[in-house]
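The instructor's notes for this session suggest beginning with a concrete chain rather than abstract definitions. Hand out the sequence below and ask the class to guess, before any prediction is shown, which regions might be ordered.
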Amino acid sequence: MNPLIAEIIEKHGERECFPRATTFVRQGLRMPFMYYLLSGKVKIEQSAVNGKSLLFSFTCEGNWLGDLELFSDADVANSTVTTVSDVETIRFPIESMRSNLKVYPELTELLARSLARKMWAYSKMSTVNLLYPLLDRYAAYLFEMSAYADELPIALETSAGLLGAGERQLQRVLRILAQRGIIRRSGRMLTVLDRDALKHLASDLVDQGRR
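After discussion, reveal the predicted structure:
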């Protein structure tokens, strides 16, 4: 761990854990804390004015949540964050972190790098729906979501919305994946049978170093 982060955790942080499938930050609601992820994975989504949500990214240990709100002087969350696995975090009051930016100049640089990575991810995600077919995008989504559990809810309407697709389109993709033996459907649930095949379909939409 970065020595600066370790020092700030010791002086200002408080450990907080969230079980899998917990939404602990909601877009549009007050966000009094920012978080540093110690372990686990979360998904980040953003909602449009029509009420539909779109998947922004997946984030794992070693990353910050709330840095955008920190620099924008806002106390309202810019996105919704839900745990994909059990997650361990260190939380910091945003107001105290704004004061820390003056005490620790290196912290400003560290968080600026975090924001730069997110801007790159946003730029990439904004082109994904245009350049990649739904099969590839859904394969990437299932690959990320199945890292900690092979059995997942299909949640057709929610999943289609997050990927910017229609339910009928997603139904066709589910049939293709089932026919290829990559997943097995059972009622409202699916079981991932071949994560390697999902990773292959997802191509560069996932970090090829992930297991």
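Then share the key points. The mean pLDDT is 87. Residues 154 and 165 are 14 Å apart (CA to CA).
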